[in-house]
Amino acid sequence: MTTNQISTDILLACEQGKLENIRENQKIPLQSILDHEGNNLLMIAASKGHEDIVKYFLEDANFGDSFVNGRNKVSNSSIYAKSFLNQYAVYKCSLQLGDTALSKAVIGDYITIVEELLKHGAKVGVYNKV
Q1: Is 127 within the bounds of a domain?
Q2: Among 25, 42, 110, 128, which is most exposed with the fewest C-beta within 10 angstroms?
Q3: Mapped to the 3 state alphabet, what secondary structure does the chain carry?
Q4: 103 and 126 in contact (C-beta within 8 Å)?
Q5: Pair 37, 86: CB distance under 8 Å
Q6: Domain that residue 84 falls in
Q7: How far is residue 77's CA from residue 49's CA, in Å, rounded to a whole number?
Q8: 126 in a domain, yes or no?
Q9: What is the rounded CA–CA span in Å between residue 111 and residue 108?
Q10: How many domains is the chain partitioned into structurally?
Q11: pLDDT one-digit tens code per residue, 17-55
């Protein structure tokens, strides 16, 4: 199996919430895998609401700050304000250049994932590039 095929399988498993497939396919560094929009695996899992995969990346795989606060490379525009934990998180121009796993979890209303990301050092107040 080629590196490209492994990356594709892991991306698909992350999209579909198949944690066991991710664990089984660790023949290449997970931090290096990005989708066509520049989203890392944590961003994909957070955007889909896959709590078990998010926790795996944060706790078991123990990825660092650059993975938790990584930003994508896509361009589009809109503004979001969501209330979580009695606080407002405002994400200007979401789905733009610079989304993070935290912004994707906020947009998806995945409160448990937001809490996990914050607990593991996700930065608040990060704005996308316009």
Answers
A1: no
A2: 25
A3: CCHHHHHHHHHHHHHHCCHHHHHHCCCCCHHHCECCCCCEHHHHHHHHCCHHHHHHHHHHCCCCHHHHCCCCCCCCCCEEEEEECCEEEEEECCCCCCCCHHHHHHHCCCHHHHHHHHHCCCCCCCCCCC
A4: yes
A5: no
A6: 3-119
A7: 22
A8: no
A9: 9
A10: 1
A11: 999 999 988 778 888 888 888 889 999 999 999 999 999
Between CA 34 and CA 128 the distance in angstroms is: 18
- Give the total residue count for the chain: 130
Does some domain include residue 129?
no
List the structure tokens of 46: 């957070």
Would residue 103 count as lying in a domain?
yes
Residues 89, 124 contacting (CB under 8 angstroms): yes
Q: Read off the pTM.
A: 0.76
Whether 54 and 117 have beta carbons less than 8 Å apart is answered as yes
Structure-token match 């990584």, residue found: 70
68 token code pair: 């938790």
